[in-house]
Amino acid sequence: MKIFVPRESNQNETRIPVIPAGVDRLVKLGAVIDIEAGLGAALGYADEAYAKAGAAIVTDRKLAFGEADMLLRLNVPPSEDLPLLKKGAIHVSHLDPFNQKDLLQAFAERGVSAISMEMIPRTTIAQKMDALSSQANLGGYVAVILAAHYSTRILPMMMTPAGTITPARVFVIGAGVAGLQAIATAKRLGARVEAFDTRPVVEEQVKSLAARFVKIDLGGASQTKDGYAKALTEEQLQQQRDGLRKVCSQSDVVITTAQVFGRRAPLIVTADMVTSMNPGSIIVDMAVETGGNVEGSRLNEVTDVGGVQILGFGNLPGRVPVPASQMYSSNLCNLVDHFWDKETKMFPLNREDEIIRGCLITHEGQVVHPTFGGK
User: Which of these is catalytic: 127, 250, 276, 366?
Assistant: First the structure.
């Protein structure tokens, strides 16, 4: 089976899908690997490193697409790449399937089997393939580092001959993978940390990181079977905002991480909540790419509201591209390795398998995932 790893088409993307160590793993499985020239140059991975791991370095992108049985990449593919794919090929990447209906149809019409990395089920056995979690983990870390960078004060307490500096108060809204990493990072930097989540079940996890869990009764809001937060009603959202307003006003840093998979991010921090915070405070909106949790946040901009700075940076994992690429590469290789048939040296698509059933979007000329109209 021939696997092709092309360069990312998005010029602003700093991460790469597969590192040389990943190539080594795939080659040992018996796969034939083509790497587009220059794939890892920006991160210090020279073509020679990929060649040493067993890959062929290719410069004819069109030919490589046409010969590949499987493509491994990071982001949603551009439309101009689709005609280059051969019928029956397997395409693995993030697909943003809830917002890319035309792309899904194009995959189906091309006869390509498309696997969406976002749709990997959140099960114990699939954890090693869960790219959303691996990248969100880094995003939570970066959010705290950005807040510390832009803040006018330090995060830890300091006792000096000149007096005592009290620790900064950090409030994390949403205690999923990103939120828990943000809590842990802020604690390591010495901040006083509080956190809130609509799922009471995460209180123990928050407390295990030595943070205070903020309780707000929302009348039974919980989580889906996959561990994602359920969407709140407008009444519940208002209850939540009322409960969070006081905590936000007392915080030096607020980090919002709340997202509802496949839907617009909920508005949590309203304009009046922003203005209630002291000048010099920082808000990091980690959901800005899906609509934003903070009123007034703008994608890839720093917005100043009465001295409160709202950081709306997208692609936070891309700010630490080396570990982000290492983790994503591992996710891809774990997926391939898990299903690889060592005798035929192929990647069979067993639609009876729970993981494949969860992430396979198109197959044999049609959309097959029931969430997107398939059967």
Answer: 127
Residue with tokens 């803040």: 151
To the query of whether residue 130 is one of the catalytic residues in this protein, the response is yes
Q: Please pick, among 133, 134, 325, 330, the residue that the annotation labels catalytic.
A: 133
Q: Which amino acid is at 319?
A: R
What pTM does this model have?
Answer: 0.92
228 is catalytic: yes
Q: Of these residues, 93, 116, 130, 330, which one is catalytic?
A: 130
Strand, coil or helix: 340: coil
Residue 280: Cβ within 10 Å count: 13
Tell me which of 9, 228, 353, 366 is the catalytic residue.
228
For each of the domains in the chain, give its residue range(s) and CATH number, in order of start.
2-119+321-365 (3.40.50.720), 136-319 (3.40.50.720)
For residue 99, the tally of other CB atoms under 10 A from its CB is 11
From the candidates 61, 122, 212, 245, which is the catalytic residue?
122
* pLDDT digits (tens), the chain, 375 positions: 999 999 999 989 999 999 999 999 999 999 999 999 999 999 999 999 999 999 999 999 999 999 999 999 999 999 999 999 999 999 999 999 999 999 999 999 999 999 999 999 999 999 999 999 999 999 999 999 999 999 999 999 999 999 999 999 999 999 999 999 999 999 999 999 999 998 888 999 999 999 999 998 776 555 555 555 667 787 887 888 888 999 999 999 999 999 888 889 999 999 999 999 999 999 999 999 999 999 999 999 999 999 999 999 999 999 999 999 999 999 999 999 999 999 999 999 999 999 999 999 999 999 999 999 887
127 as an active site residue: the answer is yes
The one-letter amino acid code at 235 reads E
Phi then psi for residue 321, to 5 deg, are -65, -25
Q: Tokens 């800005």 label which residue?
A: 288
Look up 133 and say whether it is catalytic: yes
